[in-house]
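stuck on this fold:
=====
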Amino acid sequence: MSEVINLEGVSVIRDGRYLLAKVDWRVEAHERWVVLGPNGAGKTTMLQVASTYITPSRGTVRLMGIEHGKGDVRQIRRRVGYAGAGLAGMIRGYLPALEIVVTGKHAAFVDSRWHDYDDSDWETARARLARLQADHLADRQFETLSAGEKQRVLIARSLMTSPELLLLDEATTGLDLGARERLIRSLSDLAFDPAGPSVVLVTHHVEEIPPGYDHILLLSGGEVLADGPIEETLSDETLSDCFQLALRLRRYEDRYRAWSPSGRTT
C-alpha cells in the first residue's frame, strides 16, 4: 500500500504563532480519514499544506511520494481534489451545475469557453454529478441551488480528474439536517467504493462522520492529540481532551453521537 500524504515535523508559523506545530501524519492509499477538532485547531491549515497551497515553515511534505518543492506542483494538484464551503464564493453563480463540474478538469473558475472540452469530458461531468446523486441539477444555475446542492456539485467537480486524494474542508458547514444527511450519505457511498480516492474530511462534529471512514486525527491548538483507526482512537477521553470539555461518546449502528453530561471542563 502506497502513501498519498506524509507530513513529517510540519509546522506553520504566522506572526510568531504556531498554526501547526510539529505535525506527523501519514495517509495510505484508499484510507478514509476524518480530521476532527475545535475552531482554530489548524484543520484547514493542514489541508492547505496537504494540497500544496501552503508551504510549511518547517518540516517535510510528500504527496503521492513526491516531496513538495521537488516536483511540478501543477501535476501534483491534478492528482488532488479539493472541495469546501469556501469555494462556493469563487464560482460564477450564473453557470449551470454541469458546466461548473466540467471546468474542474482544469481547476478553472471561469466558464467552459475558456478551455477545450470534448464529448467525453461532458460525459464524465454528468457521471460525477450522478455519483453524488446530483445529476438532476445539471442544468440548474449554481446560484439557484440550496447550500447542500452546491456542496454536492462542488464535490462532483473535485472528482472530475479522478484524483487519487480528495480533501473535503468542512463540507457540511451551514447545511440543514436534511441536506447534511443527504451529503453524508453521498460521502459514505464514496468511501465504500473500492476504486475511489483516499479521502480526508475535516469536521467539528462526530455526528458528521460518514459510515465507511476508518481513520481519525484529533487536532487541537495546532498539535496532533491522537490519530489512528477510528475504533481504537476515538473515545470519551480523546474527545474530551480535544475539546477541553467532559464529553461522552456513543456509537449507534454506524454513526456517532457526543454530548456533555455536566458541562465540566477537563
